Amino acid sequence: MERSGGTGERSSDGGTGERSGLTAFVCCCLSGGGNAVGVRFSNRELDPLWGAAVRFGAAALVLLAVMALMRLRPPRGRALAGAVLYGVLNFGVTFALAYYALVRVHAGLGQTVLALVPLAALLLVVAQRQERFRMSALAGTLVAAAGVALASRAPLQADVPLLSLLAVLGAVVSLAEAAVLVHRLPPVHPVTMNAVGMTAGAALLFAGSFAAGDTWRLPRLAATWWALAYMVLVGSVLTFVLYLVVVRRWGASRASYVFVVIPVITILLSAWLDDEELTAGLLLGAPLVLLGVHLGALRPGRKPPPKA
């Protein structure tokens, strides 16, 4: 039988579910923080969409192998369609738009806009009647986004092409809607959901890479191979399995605060691995990020979202 319970279902014990959700949240932030650094190394040798397609294609193969070892059955019917749609949104559309935008958008500005994912998720869950509107969530998002802007040195004035800005905003909405979608689907094990989703997303990225005329070749540099290995095993397989656990435990609007903590982790790792300068902005921005996460996701008194 498929072991579709466990991490795929929310715990009936509120305290246990909250603690396991917090543990998964922290681990997800730490493991996901290295992705942007890995992408930077990968993009120095590989075309962006091709690198993304290779990353998620390899991660999908790993997850399919894990499925086989765990004897998890593939989803069927509505669950299968939902997993495919989740993958198209969370991996295909989101990363295609993000990679396109970051060609012309300053990385700091891109990270700041992506920090608005919790606000987008909040508006979407309210519109789809999964949760009630919370002023604390709105305040938390705005405070955290301001902290990311300071920490990443996002320019206040920059010549950003309209299409690139729209692409970043599209990535924000796509990422948020993918998390909201999870609660509208039949319960699926996080490994299975990501295996099917990454397969669908990778197929879309391969098609986009082909259409963009990318050069399809394997890396030659050891640094690129190490970056891909990290992004596949830790940044994709581990991070997104943990992210789905957080979404199931906490709901989309709270889980999406992962995307405001990750930039701070990224800056610290980039300073260590890629000699990026640490500035006073990080000292000012990091506390704002933590305050925003506390207001929007960690403040006492949160109740788990109702089952869809």
Question: SSE layout and pairings?
Answer:
Layout lengths: L13 H19 L2 H9 L4 H23 L6 H25 L5 H8 L2 H11 L7 H17 L10 H21 L7 H23 L9 H29 L1 H4 L2 H16 L6 H19 L10
Helix pairs in contact: 1-10, 1-12, 2-10, 3-4, 3-9, 3-10, 4-8, 4-9, 5-7, 6-7, 6-8, 7-12, 7-13, 12-13
Question: What would your notes on this structure say?
Answer:
The chain is built from 13 helices and no strands. With 308 residues, the protein is an all-alpha fold. The chain has one domain (20-298). Helix 3 runs antiparallel to helix 4. The protein is globular. The relative contact order is 0.22. Keywords: Membrane, Transmembrane, Transmembrane helix. Its main location: membrane. InterPro entries: AA-Vitamin_Transporters, EamA_dom, EmrE-like. It holds the Pfam family EamA.
Please give a handful of descriptors for the protein shown.
mainly alpha, globular, 13 helices, 308 residues, disordered N terminus, single chain
Low-confidence stretches: 1-13
What is the SS-derived class? mainly alpha
Order of helices and strands: HHHHHHHHHHHHH
Overall pLDDT metric = 80
Distance between the termini: 24 Å
| Largest sheet: number of strands, sense, barrel closure | none
SS strand fraction: under 5%
Radius of gyration: 18 Å
What is the 3D shape?
Answer: globular
* Number of structural units classed as domains: 1
Number of helices: 13
Helix share, percent? over 70%
| Count of extended strands | 0
